Prior knowledge:
Helix content: 55-70%
Strand order of the largest sheet: 1-2-4-3
Strand content: 5-15%
Radius of gyration: 17 Å
Oligomer: single chain
Structural class: alpha/beta
Shape: globular
Number of strands: 4
Order of helices and strands: HHHHHHHHHHEHEEEH
Distance between the termini: 40 Å
Number of helices: 12
Low-confidence stretches: 1-27
Amino acid sequence: MTPYTAMLRPLVIFLSLLFATPSTQAQNVDEFVPSNLLWFFYHEMGHALIDIYEMPIFGQEEDAADVLSVLMVNEFFEEELSRQIINNAAYAFISFSEMNEDDDNAIYADVHGPDLQRLYTMACLFIGGNFEERKELADLYEIPDDRLEGCEEEFNLAYSSWWSVMDEAAVEGGGETVVFLGKSSKDDPIKQAMFEIFDEELKELNKYYAFEHDIKVDIEDCDEPNAFYLPDERTIIMCTEMATLLGEMLE
């Protein structure tokens, strides 16, 4: 494991007042939205690192990016909060699956794997990261015994693959290579809430990592609920529509 275990820390929640309503408060919308924004951010960070370090990918790049997101959640957050992020991401994958259940093209022709498959792989890797303490989660995620038996091995393989890059970038004192382009926007509550989440998150990343090239992160209106990485600009875009859609999932 990386020596930078001091990076384990609480998740800062800013969206509760923005999205919580009497009908959704009981479903922890204040956890659900920021948890998933962070999950998708680290997925896009995976694309950025694959690009910057010219990592060989044998298979779908989207799968590799999902794997990094699990590893970062496992490494970067305290146990209770890492479980919170994974649980909320699992619910989102179930919701996305239900939204696309009548569209075979969306399920099978997309560059991403089917949503439920992504859920099972995410859950298996997460359980494998701390198997003895997390193996009871297999019932929650309905992971079959024959898949569960290999989860620890799956995690170890993923860790050894990704952490060769992450260990190279992890330096004492960190750096300033994750550059936040987002601006405080008091007149736009969604952008403001996202700004506060990512301003905090990127400061934490910079405390521990100095990447080979700068990675810029911005918050934009995209006309679609999405997040994506622009390789020509080495920029991660987090779309405000994604935060809106996540909030609507629990209504």
